């Protein structure tokens, strides 16, 4: 097999129905990457009767393992990212049903809880920034409730007396991302999706069409379509023609896990996001006693080292908000790599390389966007069309921008 570069004619508008590729292998799709996105795509596609396979040497590692699992489209809303916000909200709306169905199929917990999120401000300047976020919410019709300092401490008694006030967002929920991975692995097992625990060494391209992947074992897996869901490594897959994907860069996030003895004393009742003198920190409690503290945002290429400075900054911010964390055992310090795109939004849909579908680049929203991405890619695989809510996130938005620049 040889790889061919994508031709300039392939940069013309993508037909909504994807041309079928050879050879006939018995597989409708092979999915590169068994993080949350790849696993959920496989599950949803298999539910539609498609024959799919996954390839990943370490399923559920990477960003899916590192994440905190906040489902927080409102408290994480950013100016200028309103289109992404709509997709985030669409995914948040379907989370409860997704999690319930998954638990029924998998027979294990999904880790989803519908408790809200409290965003708090530490200094007066932080309070001004939070007030601006509240005004942004009002303009967009998003539900968030301003809470004064006393109200914040009534909701979360362990908050520092210095906290100036906050915003309560009942609709921003959370999921234990590691339980979610385990449930999805069980679910794909139930629908008999083969999982090849080997690295993909090459995208196989024949006559300008993606036809499968080669595994590190040397084995080729042919399929009608290839779904690229390899997170921050998506852009560096050997055989991927230049221009088929926008640049996808690793954005490091260091994240900590502390331990609260369940049932001994209440700690936090909901996720708390803090602005501490302009720096962001979040604390996400789990029912089983874990407290997740995250996360740094660092542009350092593929460096995934935990550093003393990263850990210090996270603990300092978290301790200023919730002094009682000083007493908790620190059980894990980890660094993951988020897949960042030029506009911070994911890349979902057919690429300019026929046969290749992108489901990657979810940056800070991979856990949140799992249900909507899985539904969109499964529909694309089954019917040849992206659903309305996923339109505008195709990779061609970057080629169109380049052409008009
Ligand atoms: N969405 C949280 C993070 O990326 O840190």
Keywords:
alpha+beta, 405 residues, 20 strands, 28% helix, single chain
Describe the protein in words:
With 405 residues, the chain is an alpha+beta fold. It contains ten helices and 20 strands. The strands form four sheets. The chain has an eight-stranded mixed beta sheet with strand order 6-7-5-15-16-17-14-18, with helices on both faces. A six-stranded mixed beta sheet has the order 9-2-1-13-20-19, covered by helices on one side. The protein has a three-stranded antiparallel beta sheet with strand order 3-8-4. Strand 15 and strand 16 form a beta hairpin. Helix 1 (36-47) crosses helix 9 (370-383). It is globular and about 65 Å long. Glycine binds next to loops. The site of glycine has 7 residues, from loops.
Instruction: Write the element-wise H/E pattern from the N-terminal end onward.
Output: EHEHEHHEEHEHEEHEEEEEEEEEHEEEHH
Bound molecules: glycine
Strand order of the largest sheet: 6-7-5-15-16-17-14-18
Roughly how many Å apart are the termini? 36 Å
What Rg do the Cα atoms give? Answer: 21 Å
Question: How would you describe the shape?
Answer: globular
């Amino acid at each position: 097999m040889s790889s061919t570069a994508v031709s300039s004619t392939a940069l013309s508008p993508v037909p909504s129905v994807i041309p079928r590729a050879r050879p006939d292998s018995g597989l409708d799709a092979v999915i590169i990457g068994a993080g949350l996105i790849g696993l959920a795509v496989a599950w949803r596609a298999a539910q539609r009767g498609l024959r799919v396979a996954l390839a990943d040497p370490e399923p559920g590692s990477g960003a899916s393992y590192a994440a905190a699992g906040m489902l927080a489209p409102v408290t994480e809303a950013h100016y200028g990212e309103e289109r992404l916000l709509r997709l985030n909200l669409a995914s948040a709306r379907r989370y409860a049903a997704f999690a319930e169905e998954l638990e029924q199929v998998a027979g294990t917990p999904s880790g989803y809880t519908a408790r809200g999120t409290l965003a708090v401000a530490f200094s007066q300047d932080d309070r001004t920034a939070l007030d601006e976020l509240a005004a942004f919410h009002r303009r967009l019709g998003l539900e968030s409730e301003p809470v004064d300092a006393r109200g914040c401490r009534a909701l979360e008694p362990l908050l520092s007396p210095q906290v100036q006030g906050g915003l309560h967002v009942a609709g921003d929920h959370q999921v234990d991302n590691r339980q979610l991975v385990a449930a999805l692995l069980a679910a794909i097992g139930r629908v008999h999706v083969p999982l090849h625990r080997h690295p993909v060494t090459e995208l196989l391209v024949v006559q300008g069409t993606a036809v499968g992947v080669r595994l590190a074992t040397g084995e080729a897996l042919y399929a009608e379509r290839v779904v690229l869901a390899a997170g921050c490594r998506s852009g560096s897959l050997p055989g991927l023609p230049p221009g088929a994907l926008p640049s996808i860069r690793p954005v490091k996030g260091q994240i900590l896990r502390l331990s609260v003895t369940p049932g001994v004393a209440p700690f936090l009742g909901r996720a708390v996001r803090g602005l501490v003198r302009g720096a962001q920190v979040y604390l996400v409690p789990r029912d089983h006693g874990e407290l997740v503290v995250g996360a740094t945002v660092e542009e350092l290429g593929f460096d995934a080292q935990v550093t003393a400075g990263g850990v210090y900054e996270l603990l300092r911010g978290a301790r200023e908000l919730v002094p009682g964390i000083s007493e908790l055992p620190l059980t894990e310090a980890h660094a993951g790599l988020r897949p960042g795109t030029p506009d911070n939004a994911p890349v979902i849909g057919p690429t300019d390389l026929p046969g290749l579908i992108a489901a990657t680049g979810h940056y800070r929203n991979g856990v949140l966007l799992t249900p909507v991405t899985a539904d969109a890619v499964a529909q694309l695989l089954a019917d040849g069309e992206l659903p309305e809510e996923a339109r505008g996130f195709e990779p061609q938005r970057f080629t169109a921008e380049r052409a008009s620049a």
